[in-house]
Amino acid sequence: MEEIDELMNFGLRRRRRGSGGKKGRRKGSRKKLNPVVSAKIAQATVHYASKEYNEAIPLLHDVVRLAPNIADGYHLLGLVYDSLHDRKKAFNFHMIAAFFTRKDASLWKKLVAWSIEMGDVALVKHCLSKAIIADPDDVGLKFDGALLYFNAGEFLKAAELYEQILRLTPENVQARITAAKMYRKCGRTEKGIQILEDYVNADNQKSNLSVIELLINLYMSNNAHNKALQQIDKWHDALDSEKLPFHLEAKATICRAHLGDMGHAEVFLHHVPLDATKETIDAVAEVADSFFEMGKYDYALKFYFKVEFLTGNPDGDLYKKIAQCYMSLKERSKAVPFFYKALNKMEENVEIRLTLASILLEEGKEDETITLLSPSDSNEKNSQPKSWWLDGQVKIQLAKVYHSKGMLESFVNTIYSSVRDTLIIESINQKLRPMKKLSKHVLIERAKLLAEQEPDSVFHGFRPLASSAELLKASRAKKLLEKRAALKEQKRAAAIASGLEWHTDESDEEPQRREKQEPPLPGFLRKQENHQLLVDLCKALASLHRYWEALEIINKTLKVAHDDIFSSQRKEELRSLGAEIAYGTTDPKHGFDYVKYIVQQHPYSNAAWNCYYKVVSRLEDRYSKHNKFVRYMRNLRNDCIPPIIISGHQFNSISQHQAATADYLEAYKLQPDNPLINLCVGTSLINLALGFRLKNKHHCILQGFAFLYKYLHLCDSSQEALYNIARAYHHVGLVTLAASYYEKVLAMHVKDEPVPRLPYEKPPSDQQDPKSNYCDLRREAAYNLHLIYKKSGAVDLARQILKDYCTV
Questions:
Q1: Could you list the residue range(s) of the whole structural domain that residue 408 is in?
Q2: Where does the signal sequence lie (predicted)?
């Protein structure tokens, strides 16, 4: 019967005016239907009422063909297909009928219900808007539209619909409250306040407490505490009782505090009932939080302690707030017990633990801090991926405490693995470049917003319920997908036309792209205070003789750290440390790059070249990188002497004395008065003269001694220079002259001096071998002289020399 009534009433709009005298211009009469069409509609209606649907459908098809602009045939077809449980066809025919009778609100409402069942949000939005236009007085439709916009995040549109509802039903409190909340959500608090004020200030309205509370909250959130207090007083005056509700009294206390009246806070605190309910406790906590935000920490403490008393067993957040109040009042020692209470309630809270650790460190309680930041044995066994002791900041803080106490091994064990993993992950993340084009997967996800309707659906192109930016992205994605598909089809056609076998190009089906990983210490390198921790870690590893691990940290840090992250001074410090570690490792090849960098930065520094040569001297004779670098430096800086001398040393070490002499003489041209160069030239010429291929050996020996005597003169006949002259005479077999110079060495006494060391090398301790500071050459001279005496047959004299100078 309902369907028959719907059919009989179809096309008849509800009359808004009374049935009395008509106003306005006379409407034209409705065009009469073709008698054939009318007869077919009547016959189809009879079949429909008799449930003879198969007989009604052909008749209605004829109606649509004969009168395609008449809604009756489409509507009746929709009813028939609905009775046959074919909802899609029924919906399509009802939609056509609705377009011909746009003012038929009942039909649009039916379509709204069906589109909701179909789950098509865009279609729901379209039908709902048409239904609202057809029946603007239907409040239920506006509620449905507002809810639709709210679920889609369109709070402003939802608020506007709620405001339209208020124009129809001003007494609707719920719509008014919801409209104000929607305006607050979209940042238009003033508009929400105006809507509530209109209701409160109306003389014919009795104010609702919910409206009053929301208006007070909006005033307070808008920093209009004076207006909020006025509203509370106005409500109080309208009450029959003399006492305000407790939660409103709490808000009045907050407003008075913002206006500078703190005296009412004490009064309110005394009025707090002992048998408090949850609402009462929440009100007191709200006052305490407001005082905390205002900076009234002494008052906040009083209210927090009242909440603690009323609750009996408060949560950890309350103890945390009490501790923060004491911290703000500069009473840090009083904050400690409350931080501990908060930790008992919230053991996984890292922020509380770190704050407490900083307080303990300020008080010098390092052992207690270590206990606080270290997990117990039971906790460590039951470790979870997000346990508090695995947090990066906790590890950094604990490592700093260990380092300050000099516990290097504990310091390294705490932080090394996290730092290493962080550097590795950061290095991998830097290699992940942003994609030049969006992947097909991303495009498909975006284009889903514009997904086509079912193929058998007549209606398409309804605007989805989304923002303009999202719709623009979806449209671009759809066009790009179509463009890629067309290009792919062109390639396929070209391949087939060329007689080639076509294989689908799977390159557009991008493999799953690796996402950036989260390191154990997020943002570690970007914090300046952590850079010193990195240096301390490398030094600690070197002190523990874990050279490879230290070099690994240095290598990865220099690889990852860019100039905007790591200062050049820090990088220089790390490279210098790498050079130091390289000398202590069994294979100094890993530190060669560091000493090479130091030399490149300071090419004329003897200390830098000494550091370089200390490392190079432990390498194999023909280390290609070293030879290439020395040649490069010589070509780059012709006036730089150290690489020339090092090259000569390298030739001497492999008995290529002629090449060594050439290098030494090149250095001599640059600095003829350098004692070291004269010594090197002299000894190299003597070594060259002792070879087998040289013809003028005596002339070469005389040249060598000429350079050695110049060296002696430049050194002011020092003990070392005399010893080198004696050693040269001894080497060529002139033992008489050698003996005379050895005796001159024995006649001189030189004070012991420390062995020269590089800046980073530690001075020797008292427990070390005293020979490390030995500089007097009399013992060496005496031994060589005893060899000469012994060979010449003066055994007693040789024995006496040993007894005088070489006996301990």
A1: 394-429+521-619
A2: none
